[in-house]
Structures are given as C-alpha cells and as structure tokens.
Amino acid sequence: MQKIVEPCKRIENNGNIKILLKGTNIDHVEFELPEIRGFENILIKKKVHDIPRIASRICGLCHASQAIVSNKVIEDMYGITPPSQSIILRRILLIGELIKSHIMHYFFQSFPDLLKIINFYEISNPYELMQFDPQLTSSVFDLIKLGSEIDKIFGGRYVHLITCISGGVIYKPSQLNINLIRKLLQKGSSHAKYLIGNFIKLFSTKTPPISFDLPKINYLGLSNHGFYDRYKGKIVIKNYKNQLYFSEKDYQSYFNKDIGIFGVTFHQNNNIGLITGPIAREKINQISVIERIAPYFKTINENWNNSILFQNFLELIEVDHEIHQCLKLLNDDSLNKCYDLPDLGEIQKSEGIGVVEAPRGLLMHHYKIDQNESVIQAKLFIATEINIPLMNFMTLQYARNLYKKEAIDKVKKKIAQMIRAFDPCISCATH
Amino acid sequence: MELKILIISMTSCSGCISTLFSLDIFPQFFEKTKIAYFPFITDEEKLDIYDIALIEGCITQESQIRLIQEVRRAAKKVYSLGSCAAFGGIINLSKKKEGEPLSNYIEVDGIIPGCPPPSSLFGNCLINLLENKMIKLSNKNQCYSCPLRDGLDYEYKTKITDLIPNNRDFNSTQNPKCFLTRGILCLGPVTREGCENKCIIRGMPCEGCLGSPSKSLYSNIYNFLSLLNLSDDLKTYKGIFYRYSKPLLIKR
Ligand code: SF4
Ligand code: SF4
Predict the structure, then answer these.
(1) B132 dihedral zone (left: phi>0; alpha: psi -120 to 50; beta)
(2) Interface residue A294 vs chain B (CB under 8 A)
(3) Residue B117 near residue B82, CB atoms below 8 Å
(4) Handedness of CA B145, B241, A372, A87 (dihedral sign)
(5) pLDDT over 60 at B248, yes or no
(6) B206 lines ligand 2 (CB under 6 A)
(7) Which residues of B touch A144 (CB under 8 A)?
(8) What is the 3-state secondary structure (H, E, C) of A50-117?
(9) Is B149 exposed, middle or buried (0-12, 13-18, 19+ CB in 10 A)?
(10) How far, in Å, from the CA of B73 to the mean position of ligand 1?
(11) Does A59 touch chain B (CB under 8 A)?
(12) How many angstroms is it from A365 CA to the middle of ligand 1?
C-alpha cells in the first residue's frame, strides 16, 4: 500500500489530501484535517458569560455565527429573549459575515477552478486572477469590504465581534451609520448583480462534468415556515421523497455526536448522503422562486442543479438575496430606538441548545451547566463536519475514475478542485 | 522592487488572515507586493525566498516547527501575526493542549499582536513593512488612553467578582466608571494600548488580547494579580490572566 499525503491549497486553513494506493487501484481518499483544537474541552469550567467570546475564536470566518449561536444557548438556559432591535442587529451581523465569507471563497478559491473545469482556462496565481476581469476584481474587493464594514460598525471589529453578548447586542446604530451601510449595500447590490451576470455569461450554457453531480442525498438546514432564514427556524432534513421538521431541542432523536471526536452521526440516514449549506438551503427553502431572483435561475442550464459546483452560483445568489434582506432590515423602525437588554436573572434550566445557519450550513451548540453557572458539557455541531463524509465519498469515486486514465499527480489536482467546491471550513471543523 | 511575501497559518482560527482581507489597505498591499506563497489563495507548493513572512497561529505540532524553521531560512523578515503566533493564544485555555509562540522556536523580527490585530494597528504595521521600516508598538498600557481612566483606583480596593458587566449596566444612561471600581475584571493595566480601547468603548472590559506592554509579560500580570482583591471564585478561574498567552509560570 502506498500512501500519498499532500496539502490541499486554496482552502481556509490547512488540510491534506490523503490517498491510499493498492497496486493499480485507489483504495482510499480522505480529506485529512489537522488536529482538533479541543474547544469542547476548553469551554469546560468556564463561566457561561465568558463562553461566547471564547466560542468566537473557533473560527475567524464564521465568528459571528459561533458567537451568536453561543448566546442563543445561554438565553435558552436563562429563559430570556433579546429585544427585537438586537435580533435585527444579529441578523445584520450574520449577513456581513456571509457576504465576506462567500465572496472570498467564490473568487479566490473556486472561480479559478470553474474557469478551468468549465472553460479550460488556466489561471495560475492571484495576480492573473485579478487581471482576468478587472471589473469583477473591483466588485469582489468592494463586496469583501461591505461585509467587513457591516461587522465592524455594528459589531465593533472585523472579526471576533465585541458587541454580541447574551441578552442582545450592545450597540445602538446612529442614523449616520445606518445611512452609511445603506449606501454600501446599494453599491454592493450592483456588484452582486455583476458577479451573477458574469457567472451566467461564462458558465450558464455549459454543462458541469457529471463526476461533480451529487448522489441521492438528504439536505439539512433551517427553515422558517418554508422561508430562507439563517437566524431562526425549525431544523429540516429533506430528501427527494419526504421531509422531517423538528425543533433543535429534539435533535437527539435525529443526530448526535461524541464530544472531542470528529463527526456527527445521523440515526436514520447514513452520513454519506447528507449535505448542509447553500445547496441544502436552496433545496429546502427555494430562494430560486423569489421573484427578483427567479430570472437568474432560468438562464442556467439545468444540468447545474445537481452539481456540487452549483454551490458557487448559490453563494452569489445568497449574497444578492441577503444584501436585499439587509436593506429591508435597515428600514426597520426599531433599529435606532433605545431598548433595554434583559437581565440574565436566575438560571431556568441547566441545559441549553441553540442553532443558526452559518455560511457553510447548520451550526448548533449544546451546553450543560452546574449551579455555579460553569459549563460542565459542551457539544458543538459544525457544518463542515457534517459535509466531510459526503465530500470524501465523492472524491473517492472521482479519484478512482480519474486514475483509470490519468497519473496520480493530475488526480490529486483534480480532487482538490472538488474539495474546494465543498468550501470546507477547517477552523470550524477542527474546533 | 516589489516585496515578495509569504503568509501561512499554524494552529489558528484564520481570524488574523480574515482581518487582513478586511483592511482598507489590503487591495493596495496586494498590488504593491508580490504575494507569492499564501495557501489560502495560491497554489504554490514549494517554498522559495521571500522578503517578508507573516505567520498566523501557534505551534502545537512537531511538523510545524520544521516548517517555520524552513520559513525562517527562506525569508529575510519573519513576523508573528496575531496573539496565537506572538504569545501562544487562546488554545492555552485548554487543559489538554498547549500552543507555543513562534519565538520559542525561531527568531522573529517583530509581532503584530491582537486577537485579531486591531485594524488600524495592523494596517500601520503593513505600511511600515512596505516601507522597510520596523513595526512600532506602544509600550504604554490601555489605561493610558482609556476614556474611563479618571476613576481608576491604583490601590485596586474594590472586590472583583465579575468577568463582564451586568446587562443592566449597558442599559444605564450614566457615564460608566472604570471597570475595576465596579467589581469587573479589566486587564487594561497590564495590556498594551494600540486598539483605540476597542472593547472598553463598547462597554466591555479589556481581555488582554494585545499582550503586555513590557517584556516581562508574566511577572507583570502576576504583580497585578496579587494587587487585585479577587473573589474566591475568580481566584481559581482558569484563563483570566493568560487568555491569549501561554501560561509559563503557572505550569512550572
Ligand atoms: S490570534 Fe485570535 S484571530 Fe488570530 S488566529 Fe489566533 S485566535 Fe484567531
Ligand atoms: S480592549 Fe483589550 S481585549 Fe479589547 S481589543 Fe483592545 S487589547 Fe484587545
């Protein structure tokens, strides 16, 4: 048996492609993560109030999701609800995070792959990428800036927000800042339009390779009565036949995990057939039918629908959709009024669960605390952790097919493209 | 001539790199340099030679030591990016793992501290690097520039019972007083300034993410600890004083 281990490039943080060769066959392909950092352990014996700012450090890309979900768990245990203003602010912070995360992944990590796979156009470094379409590049930089500024102004800094606490958000936006963000969003909306148009122009009539097609799988995500909502909703597991709706409080009937060990186990489905993130959100909530967005989908060759590469298009669509949602949220009257944050008061229950949709999919925390308000158990359910079994399954099939005709070096390069299409978040996964 | 840049991560959350992309000067930095090795966005496999290396994250594995030693040989200047790389970082709150600063294994030419580095400080550091100047960090503490400093009591008489304010404090319209006089732990006295008191102006105490203003980091913090009138609860609480640093003294 020959073992090949090589770092996968153009992904968030470090991860290896591991291939086991047995004679002339590929026996095993795996995306190998660096060591687990052990946040489930770090959180033990920490005071509840201290948890969200530590949890934020799990990931510098999904930091807002990590901190907000953590606050939701604590609010569940104390039986409090943040004022409506804070909920709007949290939604806005999640939008800022998604815009930046999606655009960075789309442009720097996936776009060169799309050009290569679909159009056979080779880009070999970020400078060639930036010169490919200067207008695209400047739109990308502006959108990254937009996401960043939203989080800096409303959250206190670009990464690891200061204002997200249990009970709400300690920030009352001034009209000046609201106007500033509105202007940036309006510009951002035209940038998003440009990116979507660019995708359609370059790729929409082509057919992605069938190796990138997803097998028959289940989609996991949040749904607010059938609508796209990343802050609030029921958990949904949906497949081509049926769908299950349940509250996060009942998750243990459907899935669970062992603390400190990688992976989530789904009781009724084998994990290989499960995906969370933009594709699942679309299959569950269909933002493609929204009037403003539907025309974009009509232009796309339907062979894209079932490809993991479709995730790239959906990222752009989500950016566009959330920019519009954010513009609506900014018009909410309660945004610049004064609301008091609720006092935490007494603990109501010794266990709490919270869920949000991070850019890469479902994110859930579950804590148990003792009488001293210290954490005695923390379970963190991470989107990338849920997607990796499917990613490994698909890369193995793909590698085996490729290896019939191509040298192993080429195989490695091509499966790296598939890994990038999944947009794994290694920081989150190595929590 | 364009500076050739390497940017890599050790054990980290990618938050420092994420912050880099958000900086006002990032597009310019990108254009003015040649970012040649940056696994986040480049495919480059082999190390070459570089003018500047920025390394994010702490050391938790053998293989990382070899890698940073190679980078040290390959780069004229090496900088620790963020508090994980500079001091060991948040992972040291763990009972099972330790993260070490880069400087335990290689010589670094400077640090860009913070978790993540504050944007203005980070931006200024990059400008200095572009101009081939040293990174300049303040050696004053947070209190020096703190808007609440008038109320600071240098005898630290108030009993410290809390890590963050009560939500009622955020609702109050009165001007807040120094955290330490309100019974809330603030690490401002032993933390370098340079973030424009980011947390403090938002109503949260300083957690010490920029590290100590002086070289004797640990003694500094332990002197402070002995001066404070801490509640029994907090005396035994792990990770207040070395949240972003490897706790050398405690483990020995
Ligand atoms: S210093 Fe903070 S932001 Fe930077 S990598 Fe470490 S945990 Fe993340
Ligand atoms: S106030 Fe303290 S914890 Fe906050 S950013 Fe500044 S140095 Fe870091």
Answers:
(1) left
(2) no
(3) yes
(4) positive
(5) no
(6) yes
(7) 21-22
(8) HHHHHHHCCCCCCHHHHHHHHHHHHHHHHCCCCCHHHHHHHHHHHHHHHHHHHHHHHHHHHHHHHHHH
(9) middle
(10) 25
(11) yes
(12) 21
10-residue averages of pLDDT along chain A (431 residues): 88 89 90 86 92 96 97 97 96 98 97 94 93 96 98 97 96 93 98 98 95 94 97 94 91 89 79 88 96 96 94 98 98 86 93 97 96 93 93 94 92 93 85 89
Structure tokens at A228: 């796209």
- Mean pLDDT, chain B, whole residue set: 90
Domain ranges of chain A: 2-429
Q: Does B239 touch chain A (CB under 8 A)?
A: yes
**Whether B16 contacts chain A with CB within 8 A:** yes
pLDDT-derived band at B157 (thresholds 50, 70, 90) equals confident
| Cβ atoms of residues B123 and B130 within 8 Å | no
Given an 8 Å threshold on Cβ–Cβ distance, is B11 in contact with A148? Answer: no
Count of C-beta atoms within a 10 Å radius of residue B117 = 30
Q: Can you read off the two tokens belonging to residue B247?
A: 């706790």
Residue A186 CB-half CA count within 13 A: 6
Longest dimension (CA), chain B: 59
Size of interface A-B (CB pairs under 8 A): 161
Q: Indicate the residue type of B66.
A: R
Structure tokens that stand for A198 in this block = 């660019």
Q: Which residues of B touch A100 (CB under 8 A)?
A: 18, 21-22
Q: Is B58 in the pocket of ligand 1 (CB under 6 A)?
A: no
State whether residue B196 sits within 8 Å of chain A by CB. Answer: no
With CA atoms as reference, the chain B residue closest to A148 would be B22
Closest to B244 measured CA to CA, from B152, B135, B116, B150: B116
What's the mean per-residue pLDDT of chain A?
93
In the block, tokens 């409090």 appear at A80
Residue corresponding to tokens 């003694």: B219
CA distance B2 to B32: 7
- Is residue B96 scored above 90 in pLDDT? no
Q: State how far the Cα of A311 lies from the Cα of A304, in Å rounded to an integer.
A: 9
Q: Can you give the pTM of this predicted structure?
A: 0.96
Q: Which CATH number does A2-429 carry?
A: 1.10.645.10
Write down the pLDDT at residue A337. 79
Please determine, for residue B230, whether its predicted confidence score (pLDDT) is greater than 70: yes
Contacts of B182 by beta carbon, 8 Å cutoff, 6+ apart? B158, B165, B169, B176
Could you tell me what percentage of chain B is helix, strand and coil, using 3-state DSSP and rounding each to the nearest 5?
40, 15, 45
Q: How many CB atoms lie within 10 A of CB A293?
A: 17
Residue B82 CA, closest ligand 1 atom number: 1
